[in-house]
Design a protein that fits this description.
The structure holds two protein chains of two kinds. Helices cover 81% and strands 0% of the residues of chain A. Chain A is mostly helical. Chain A has one domain: MetI-like fold. The longest helix of chain A is centred in the N-terminal third of the chain and has 41 residues. Chain A is flat. Chain B is an alpha/beta fold. In chain B, helix 4 packs across helix 5 and helix 5 packs parallel to helix 6. The radius of gyration of chain B is 18 Å and the shape is globular. The two termini of chain B are 30 Å apart. The chains are: A mainly alpha, B alpha/beta. Chains A and B meet through helix 5 and helix 6 of A and helix 2, strand 6, helix 3 and helix 5 of B.
Chain lengths: 225, 248
């Protein structure tokens, strides 16, 4: 165990860094997608609602591993069929991984945001509109701030799921923690020790993150019931 | 201060409102003049709240005409937000913004809509809070207030926009009995200052004392209207007589 740690510890830590990088990139775009599709689903406009429903249903209905293969291998091959000779469209594993994570997590975020907005009493929006505030300003200043507080536990949960889901992207060769660990196992033949180390690493990071999130949640709720 | 019959503030003609296949308002026509305090009475389901909510177009209008201060609410080109700035509304369930304290509730719209700078809006809010007797609650959050206090803040919040017209949608129906008086008191004061008011309520006493006109609605129509004495003390229509015999 200690021999593995001393030889491969640095490598695994760097791989954890890559995992976090991928998760952060994915989460950043997932938040944007989630907000867009979440808002589309609460607008009083059938076309917007349908667009949002299709996005959420399609992404939720496809396993992320299929999504990742499609984005990393499938789409570049498809696009290259139309590219002039000599030019080539490729995605790096980080780019493809970010897109796959963002789409997957974004669909769930959209649902969380929709539910959060719908949990706010419609009277809040009505009161804001009755004062003459336009829809989007009422949304930004009155409805969303209240929705976010109810959404926070679900969002934290989704962040943790997404962080763990980065391991799925080992299949497209991104050097995150699981992919790197596989190589270490191949070199050392010490499956038990390596996976134990990797498991503990995930556990530490996720525990720290959820502690941090709890603190943030408490701070947002301070002074208000 | 009295009713100015030369100035129609709200003109409603042949207003219809359907929710899906349910006809809530069938044919409502009336004019509301400057300085009038119109109290709308009627059994639940008579369409009185829907009628009120059509006056600032919180409900879409199915057919007919609603003209507020010369602005046709059914015209797509009308800037509803501009009209609403001049029409305050008070709700049964207060609808104070739960994420903001009392001061935030009162200054949000005036500052967002550039009607006032932040210091101006704050100063005005303090004056209005003084008026409704809640000067010490400026920093409180809605969850820390009683129902009566919430409703007084809600009235002050609407007044912060300097409206010409105030709409009240059952403002005392969600209050504990001992808090009804403090809210009605603020409304009476407002009426005495000449505010044009449309009030949907079950408070017959308030109608008797403050209204310049009482409208009795049932089944999506105005059944009877007139002075409080005419409608409440000497009703002519059988449905009005029936309703009043149950509530008085």
């Amino acid at each position: 165990m200690f021999r593995i740690l001393s030889v491969y510890g640095g490598l695994l830590l760097r791989a954890m860094g890559q995992t976090l990088l991928l998760a952060l990139c994915g989460l950043f775009f997932a938040c944007i997608l989630g907000l867009i599709f979440g808002l589309l689903s609460v607008l009083k406009n059938r076309v917007c609602n349908i667009i949002s429903t299709i996005f959420v249903d399609v992404i939720r209905g496809v396993p992320m591993i299929v999504l990742a293969y499609m984005i990393y291998f499938g789409i570049p091959q498809f696009v290259n069929g139309f590219m002039p000779a000599g030019t080539k469209f490729t995605l790096t594993a980080l780019q493809a991984g970010t897109i796959a994570l963002a789409l997957n997590c974004g669909a769930y975020m959209a649902e969380i945001i929709r539910a959060g907005i719908q949990s706010v009493d419609p009277g809040q929006m009505e009161a804001a509109r009755s004062l003459g505030l336009p829809y989007w300003r009422a949304m930004a200043r009155v409805v969303l701030p209240q929705a976010i507080r109810t959404m926070i536990p679900s969002i934290i949960n989704q962040f943790i799921i997404t962080l763990k889901d980065t391991s799925i992207l080992s299949v497209i060769g991104f050097p995150e923690l699981v992919n790197t660990a596989k190589n270490v196992v191949a070199n050392t033949m010490s499956s038990f020790q390596v996976w134990a180390i990797v498991g503990v690493m995930y556990l530490i990071v996720i525990t720290l993150l959820s502690r941090l999130a709890k603190q943030l949640e408490r701070r947002l709720n301070r002074g208000r019931e | 201060m009295g009713v100015n019959k030369d100035n129609v503030k709200i003109h409603v003609s042949h207003l219809k409102k359907n929710f899906g296949r349910l006809e809530v308002l069938k044919d409502v026509t009336t004019d509301i003049y400057e300085g009038e305090v119109v109290v709308v009475l009627g059994p639940s389901g008579s369409g009185k709240s829907t009628f009120l909510r059509c006056l600032n177009r919180l409900e879409d209008i199915t057919a007919g005409e609603v003209i507020v201060d010369g602005h046709d609410l059914t015209d797509k080109r009308t800037d509803l937000n501009k009209v609403r700035e001049n029409v305050g509304m008070v709700f049964q369930h207060f609808n104070l913004f739960n994420n903001l304290n009392v001061m935030g509730n009162m200054t949000l719209a005036p500052t967002e809509l550039k009607k006032a700078t932040k210091p101006e809006a704050r100063e005005k809010a303090m004056r209005l809070l003084d008026r409704v007797g809640l000067l010490d609650k400026a920093e409180a959050f809605p969850a820390q207030l009683s129902g009566g206090q919430k409703q007084r803040v809600a009235i002050a919040r609407a007044l912060a926009m300097d409206p010409d017209i105030m709409l009240f949608d059952e403002p005392t129906s969600a209050l504990d009995p001992e808090m009804v008086g403090e809210v009605l008191q603020v409304m009476k004061q407002l009426a005495a200052e000449g505010m044009t008011m449309v009030v949907v309520t079950h408070e017959i006493g308030f109608a008797r004392e403050v209204a310049t006109r009482v409208i009795f609605m049932e089944g999506g129509y105005i059944v009877e209207e007139g002075t409080p004495d005419e409608v409440i003390n000497h009703p002519k229509q059988p449905r009005t007589i029936d309703f009043l015999s149950k509530v008085l």
